[in-house]
Specification:
Layout: E1 12-14, E2 20-27, E3 32-37, E4 42-46, H1 47-52, E5 56-58, H2 65-68, E6 77-78, E7 84-85
Antiparallel strand pairs: 1-2, 1-5, 2-3, 3-4, 6-7
Length: about 100
């Protein structure tokens, strides 16, 4: 049993089996929290279950393609010479108009 961490929305952790996830919702009234794994899967946990997990706090991943269910090539940027660059400055969803 490792160190117990209080769940904080936005914090990333890794399980003993190497699975990375982010805490995405916390409901103290219900005693539950939701986590989202790197591959995008969401799971609801009881706070008691959370305390039983052997977790390691980690930095957020630099490559969010797993949780977006897209490949790196899908958010590459076209360069002037027609080639695609995998380097971008920021979030691949920037520039989309979500206010419809």
């Amino acid at each position: 049993m490792g160190t117990h961490y209080q769940p904080v929305v936005g914090d990333w952790y890794e399980t003993a089996t190497g699975e990375a996830f982010e805490v995405v919702a916390l409901d103290p009234d219900e005693g539950t929290l939701e986590i989202q794994y790197f591959d995008g899967a969401i799971e609801e946990l009881e706070l008691e279950t959370w305390l039983e997990l052997d977790l390691i706090p980690i930095e957020p991943p630099e490559d969010y393609s797993g949780s977006l269910d897209i490949s790196r090539e899908d958010y590459g940027i076209e360069t002037d010479d027609g080639s695609r660059s995998l380097h971008f400055g920021g979030n691949p969803l920037e520039g989309f108009d979500f206010e419809r």
